[in-house]
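Our preliminary data section would be incomplete without showing what the modeling component actually yields. Below, a chain of 480 amino acids is followed by its predicted structure, encoded as tokens that our downstream tools consume directly.
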Amino acid sequence: MSYPIFFEQKQKLTQGLKQNQLLMMLPQMQQAISLLQSPIMEISQLIDCEIEKNPLIEIIEEVAEECLAERDDPEEVKIHHDDFEILKKLDEEYRDFFGQNELRPRISKTDEELKNYWDTSVIAPKTLYGNLMEQAGETFESEKEKALAELIIGSLDERGLLATSLEELSVLAEATVKELEAILLTIQEFEPYGVGARTTQECLLIQLKRYGKEGSLAEKIVQECYEELLHNKIPLIQKKLNISPDEIRQVIEKDIAQLDLHPGTCFIPMTESYIIPDGEIKEENGKLVVVINDDSIPSLRLNRKYMRMLDDEKLPQETKEYIYQHMLSAKWLMKNVYQRNETIKRILDYLSVKQIEYLRNPKGELIPMFMTEVAEELNLHESTIARAVANKYVNTPRGLISLRSMFTFSYKKQDGSEISSQSVRDAIQRIVEQENKQKPFSDQKISNLLEDTGIPCARRTISKYRRDLNIGNAQQRRKY
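Predicted structure:
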């Protein structure tokens, strides 16, 4: 048998030249990109962060300066005779309200009750966990039962359903599945109805039971024909339960459709999100005019005190270098903010010409347009256009519009003209709204109807756009 021979290798240090191409992004460029792709709501926050880091940047507060100027002028500070009369009247009215020898106001019994009511009304919003734990504390007596109830309630998801198996919970709680099952059945009687269910089907059955529908046709449909119900297969339900389609439809609309698939979500706080447009396209004298929204962007300037320090010959060189670097950084910020607004304005100017009929007329169609087209026209890079329109909205005569939505794919009609993908979606929506719901169109039929109007669109594309519009398939749309 032969063995390989290994020779001892010695490492050597050598010098050599190697040429590489690297793309280095300067901080100023990173800042410009961040400002460009941020909506107007986030710009002021980004500027505030820069102000905290850079002492040379300050906000121009015109109103405050005007107020100070007025305060310095003695002729502007005048008190009218009527002002003293108002103060005197207020003093007389509040003298009866406040006790002369008390440090706090004397409040009537009615006012005291009203105050207590408002004080007790200011409470933190209830959560699903807190609501169920409160009911568990009033229901279970032993500490073990309360501990098991807390484990189950803590394992519910935001829908109020139990996704973790009882076998897994039994290992964590060192309890039997039978003990957990008994606790879970009790929790399933809590409000909101349907919590503690392990499946959506069980959630619906619990609600029907709690609403006094136990043994009803609705419970029978959910219990025995759940899959058919999900896919709107009414004939199969009819055949299985030997009932008429009218009975099935009435039960679904009256009893089953009213149930909550996710009962726990009623405790999720509703947050309101506001959209502030980055610009406005408005009509003036028959023309569309673009206005950039910069009201929330503070006006910036360089701190004059630091700028004057640069003229001091006794100032150490390190301090001068510090001021100079921050001065350059401040100028870059001002330039980037200006450049951001200018880029958005140029894009809006182009759109106001290209899509004039769409912006003016609520029924106007969107002309197919690509970002490359706008980039070439404005002599900008396509990525710059993409960043500039991201998360941006513009107020127009036809309402608030997302800038990104104005860039769409095009379909070439049989007559050679082009139509946007959004127009194709609108056409699909109209076809579905006008169809016979007892015999809804298949995706292939919709494709054929569009082709009859001169719009070629494949069946799979119809299916994709239909899902985008949150429209069910033919089976789900059918009414028996």
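The radius of gyration is 35 Å. Residues 1-9, 63-84, 86-106 have pLDDT under 50 and may be disordered. Preliminary results of this kind motivate Aim 1 of the renewal.
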